[in-house]
Design a protein that fits this description.
The chain has 288 residues and is α+β, with helices and mostly antiparallel strands. It folds into three domains: 4-81, Rossmann fold (3-Layer(aba) Sandwich), CATH 3.40.50.20; 89-106 and 181-287, ATP-grasp fold, B domain (D-amino Acid Aminotransferase, Chain A, domain 1, 2-Layer Sandwich), CATH 3.30.470; 110-178, 2-Layer Sandwich (Dna Ligase, domain 1). The protein is 33% helix and 25% strand. It has nine helices and 13 strands. Helix 1 packs across helix 9, helix 2 packs antiparallel against helix 3 (84-91) and helix 3 crosses helix 4 (93-102). The longest helix has 16 residues, at 17-32. The protein is globular.
Length: 288
């Protein structure tokens, strides 16, 4: 008997095959747990700012990065998994690294770009050369907002760095030390409720990024105690109920590359056979 009702809140404009498969996995997992999960596109939840939502369910599994809407739903009394604040911290990589630094969690040395109100004039980019002196060449330029590695660039020279920065049109970014040992490889560690439930090794022989969507490959991987602790600590620091943590190989000390509040776990399922959606729905049921 289904006694719990929830929303699976998804982006209004994303309708890819991969996203639809993931949504179906979550809905099916919810049914197995005795939960009725209804897909709600963010565009369906348009009410005036300051207005109240009607017909709210018991919870929402917020599978998007619309933090304004997430906060408004929370203000209306709806329990969100993940919370608006956790999604906000993960969505903006500057905020991610700031929070990780506050909690003493290692990540590659990083510099945030100054605030820009329009396209950057590289004549005023002395901060880039100063960062390059500390980070060395090549170094990473990573847009603050982005997914699937598409907004991550590797600059081998200052001229390349300036070209990338000009192309960003004033969008904020992070300059980060390039971890050569982890070039084209990392570990995706999926965490639910403070414990690791699955992990995969991702690698790409033709790109410095390991993302599967960029042509990377994957295989099963057993995490070390240090990697497991790092992933769990990172999710805890960011307030995540669940998340996907990308961990780099950096000498003897693993470091965080990025943390995802809405991990695309289909690849992990294909590789490991572990269905993250079931763990997520069981976790939600336990907390309602």
């Amino acid at each position: 008997m289904i006694a719990i009702n929830g929303w699976l809140t998804v982006n209004n404009f994303v309708n890819s095959e991969k996203s639809n498969i993931l949504r179906s996995m979550l809905v099916n997992a919810a049914e197995k747990c005795g939960i009725s999960l209804t897909i709600k596109r963010t565009g369906e939840l348009g009410v005036p700012i300051g207005g109240g939502f009607v017909g709210l369910p018991d919870f929402a599994l917020f599978w998007d990065k619309d933090t304004h809407l997430a906060q408004r739903l929370e203000d209306s009394g709806l329990r969100l998994f993940n919370t608006a604040r956790a999604i906000e911290l993960c969505d903006n990589k500057v905020l991610t690294y700031m929070r990780l630094a506050q909690c003493g969690i290692p990540f590659p040395e990083s510099y945030a770009s100054p605030k820009a109100f329009s396209a950057i004039n590289t004549d005023s980019c002395g901060f880039v050369s100063n960062a390059a002196k500390r980070l060395g060449l090549p170094f990473i330029i990573k847009e603050a907002y982005g997914s699937f590695g598409q907004q991550v660039h590797l600059a081998h020279s200052l001229d390349e760095a300036y070209a990338v920065i000009r192309s960003l049109g004033g969008r904020e970014f992070v300059m980060q030390r390039f971890v050569k040992e982890s070039c084209g490889r990392d570990v995706r560690i999926n965490v639910v409720g403070g414990r690791v439930i699955a992990s995969i090794y991702r690698y790409n022989d033709n790109d410095f990024r390991s993302n599967i969507s960029n042509g990377g490959k994957m295989k099963e991987y057993r995490v070390s105690e240090a990697q497991e602790k790092l992933a769990v600590d990172a999710c805890r620091a960011l307030g995540l109920d669940f998340g996907g943590v990308d961990v780099l190989f950096d000498g003897d000390v693993p470091t965080v590359c990025e943390v995802n509040s809405n991990p695309h776990f289909k690849s992990t399922y294909d590789c490991s056979g572990v269905d993250m959606s079931l763990y997520i729905m069981e976790y939600i049921k336990e907390r309602l």
